[in-house]
Specification:
Elements lengths: L1 E4 L5 E5 L2 E5 L22 E3 L5 H4 L2 H8 L2 E5 H9 L5 E4 L4 E4 L2 E7 L16 E6 L4 E4 L9 H7 L4 E5 L8 H10 L4 E5 L11 H10 L3 E3 L6 E3 L1
Parallel strand pairs: 3-4, 4-5, 5-6, 10-11, 11-12, 12-13
Antiparallel strand pairs: 1-2, 1-14, 2-3, 7-8, 8-9, 9-10
Bound molecules: nickel (II) ion and manganese (II) ion.
């Protein structure tokens, strides 16, 4: 699996020829300026966890340009359709669906969800994607919740994308516990440093994961790694 980081919580993963983009927020992100370009991002699928601006800012433009199928809550899918995006797949919590690349489950996130124009975004969520021989959990914005134990029991998660920025989501300490709940030792951090409220000490966060026997990867914006 190739993982490219576009800043904040926006990643693209390439697995067996399928390119999936998560929570596109690139053009308004000061930190991504000169390092990532929303007009150049490729996607076959766009997965959106909730309606906040810092997760949907570039969703409409990228979906229109690429024709990617957007997987999101029922309410966000309707909002996208009203903006002319026809290729959508609506979901709601607890549901899973077989896609050509694997099975996608929309799982609990403890957060809120309203779209930038005030439209209700439905329940916020996260995604577990089971490619068969590889399974990832992309948590979206969430607090630590015991529901994450269900993910650890049901799936053999290889890599977990977890928010670590604190204030609006889990911080590193709770993310360490979340990694234990989902039984995953390979964590990719997200939702930190973009805004003053969520600035973190990156080395301290890495040390917290190391102390727990897990590994925290913090990618550079524009960087691609193989996991
Ligand atoms: Ni949010
Ligand atoms: Mn957010």
């Amino acid at each position: 699996m190739k993982v490219t980081y576009f800043g904040h919580s926006c990643f693209s993963i390439l697995e067996k020829g399928t390119r999936m983009l998560f929570d596109p927020f690139i053009s308004p992100n000061e930190l991504a300026r000169g390092k990532a370009d929303a007009d150049l991002v490729e996607a076959d699928y766009i997965l959106i966890t909730h309606g906040h601006e810092d997760h949907v800012a570039d969703a409409v433009s990228i979906a229109k340009r690429t024709g990617a199928k957007v997987i999101a809550s029922f309410e966000i899918a309707e909002w996208l359709q009203a903006k002319g995006i026809e290729n959508v797949h609506p979901m709601n919590l607890g549901g899973a669906v077989d896609m050509p690349f694997g099975r996608v489950k929309y799982v609990t996130a403890i957060h809120s969800s309203v779209l930038p124009d005030g439209t209700y975004g439905g329940n916020p969520g996260g995604f577990v994607i089971n490619f068969g021989d590889l399974c990832i959990y992309y948590a979206g914005d969430t607090a630590l919740t015991l529901d994450m134990q269900l993910i650890g029991n049901e799936f053999d998660v290889d890599h977990a994308f977890l928010p670590i920025g604190d204030n609006f989501t889990m911080g590193a300490d709770d993310a360490v516990t979340a990694a234990k709940f989902v039984k995953c030792k390979s964590v990719i951090g997200m939702h930190y440093d973009t805004f003053p409220y969520i600035r973190i000490d990156k080395e301290e966060s890495k040390a917290k994961f190391k102390d727990s026997g897990a590994n925290l990867v913090l990618m550079e914006i524009g960087e691609t790694i193989e996991l």
